[in-house]
Amino acid sequence: MTDLLQKGLKLSHLRLADMLTREDQLSMAAHRLGIAQPAASRLAAELETILGTPLYTRSGRGITLTPAGQILCQQAAAILRQIADTGHTIDELKSGSTGSLAIGSVTGPSIEHVLPLLRQLRVSFPHILVEVEVSTSDHLCDMVAAGQLDFALARPPRDPAEMAFIYHPIADEPVELIVRPGHPILSGAGPVTLSDMLAYDWVLPQPGKILRTTIDRQFMNRTGRLPQRVLNSSSFLLMLATIGQTNAVAVVARSVADYFATGGLISRVPLDIDIHVEPYGIVTAKDRTPTAAANQALSILHSLLTANDASQDTPSKSEAY
Q: Among 3.40.190.10, 3.40.50.150, 3.30.360.10, 1.10.10.10, what is the CATH number of 79-172+278-320?
């Protein structure tokens, strides 16, 4: 980074680079920055001179970042976030209880842990602005590493080269099979087996996702076969709509099933086995000091976890990855 600064890299360059991660047209990036397009074009040209390589290529629909451009723009976003965090931290020191907080979570913990956390934050620190991202563990960890999230309830990457996190394990995640109320599979008196479920359509996450891998492994171990009619989708709303209008089956975290079953939107399949995905926990960046707002949220979260006895059977010592 020192060489780039010596070559003339400025904050205005970083702002443009950050905006190019969100806009695929230079004119739109300029508009959002509040500058004229010629000024944006000049900044882009200066960046290419500093880098010694093109920042983007033009196409009929706009611009496409080059590999070098992608690296610079991603790092620019992280640097600007750190600068913003510094300003927020100073504001928090002056006011004591303000700031912003970005939390990520996989689906089950978002209902089981994040919602109670948000309620407590609203009561104790009403001036902290909170954003919540619900996504897959891989995406959430990327966002933590990039400084876009203060912390996440997720599973850390398996690749040691990517593990730049502090991980505090919470619990494994039990899952349930869900169907619409009145589904034919619910008409029997006894428990249902996975073999019974092979006859139905399924809505599942894409292959390679941890929940999909867990279900596929259970089917292979129990039946030697996989469901043949599967809609691959990461959309929770599409999944709910599909099982609500068809005889399809889906799999969700138990906390999610509990929440929607209470409202009568879905029914749980009385499966003859318990299925769990591997443990999740609190993921923070190893090389970044949490903001005051993040520390307040983490303190509340740990208190809630202790009160709920959620981490009773998991190691209490944080692990660095």
A: 3.40.190.10
